[in-house]
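Subject: Sanity check before I submit

Could someone independently write out the structure tokens for this chain? I want to compare against mine line by line before I put it in a report. The sequence has 270 residues.
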Amino acid sequence: MPTTTAPIDIAALESFANELADMAVPASLELFRHPLDIERKEDSSPVTIADKRIESILREAIAGRYPDHGIFGEEHGAEHLDRRHVWVVDPIDGTKSFISGWPLFGTLIACLEDGKPVVGVISMPAIGERWSARRDGQARFAGKPCAVSRCTRLAEARIYTTSPDAFDDAERALYLDISSRAALRRFGGDCYSYGLLASGHVDAVIEMQLQPYDYMALVPVIEAAGGIITDWNGQPLTLDSAGRVVAAATRELHAELLALLGTDAPARAS
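---
Independent answer below. Compare away.
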């Protein structure tokens, strides 16, 4: 792969992010629903050879194409976060789904420019679905434009979270109270829920205890689809965010959720 030090077009970054997602597909499917040794990280979350192998493939490709870029991955850590462009990757978002044969695990790829996510890809290898977006562009699902719903009220909303187990006791009670007011409440999906939000099938997602590699790729996709995604204080998501994420189809719905989460801080302008 050629290297470059010239100014980088964001469209080229998005194209490369999709190349990376393509690379992750065969590596994911080769090991999916096969016996795997499972290790436990310090936070007790599971990790497999698949997570590590895929991230190694992605890191090698990034270093080959853009050697002057930084990289932050779930399994192999951070390198050169002070550089203007930083790639943030989660090789298997939803390892618990992966090891239990549930096909709704994904690969998340983001590129940050000056600390802000400008490209995002949500790839679902087992079901062959993908969302992709770049800053100031149109979010795409399966190569075609997609957009969020027009839902403005929680009472009419379809709301998701991956698992109530991810919440602390107080926050779990808060989430269950908020989501009980929605028209429909479902659990599961990891990054897939955000893709469904970008396509207008889900109206809101609330989560906590996420890491930058869990949410950075989601930001360009949700925003380019017309939605809002911030922390629980209505602030932009960054590498230093606390991991509390709220995403919604419309500004009105997002504001209602922020108020119920304990803040009426305004959302970032899209």
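---
OP: Matches mine. For the report I'm noting this point. The chain is about 30% helix and 25% strand.
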